[in-house]
Design brief:
about 140 residues; mainly alpha; disordered N terminus
């Protein structure tokens, strides 16, 4: 029974780490979707880009806290995902125009996903506050 509990706790920690590492990409997608124009956070409106982040201990504690604070319902989530797709399509076209093959892009994407899950040297997100229990 303890093994199952430990596995669930570990998986949850891995998911939280993965989501925390995704925050910069999610903010880019929110900016692409134009969420910064109507965001409740003044810093996003002033910067003319998404720069908000839930407190580190709250990220991914609920579905919408997986995303930046400007995503608070299904409509804004759909808009963010459309912005994400637009960014991905634009990046893919740029890489293909630079001479990369689709197979190379697939391999690089797999390596990025693996590094996201496994690499402990991942840079900290400067816009996300550190968890309260983190040692400085």
């Amino acid at each position: 029974m303890d093994e199952v509990k430990d596995a669930a706790t570990t998986m949850s920690a891995l998911e939280r780490r993965h989501i925390r590492r995704m925050q910069p990409e999610l903010r880019k997608a929110a900016t692409e979707a134009g969420h910064h124009r109507t965001c409740r956070l003044p810093q996003c409106r002033r910067a003319k880009r998404c720069s908000g982040c839930h407190p580190a201990d709250e990220i991914a504690t609920t579905h919408f806290k997986t995303f930046p604070p400007c995503v608070h319902d299904d409509a804004t989530q759909a808009s963010l995902l459309a912005g994400w797709k637009a960014l991905c399509d634009r990046d893919e076209q740029a890489w293909l125009a630079a001479g990369y093959t689709p197979e190379t892009l697939d391999r690089l994407d797999e390596e990025w996903c693996r590094a996201m899950e496994e690499d402990d040297d991942w840079p900290e997100d400067p816009l996300c506050p550190p968890p309260r229990n983190a040692v400085a």
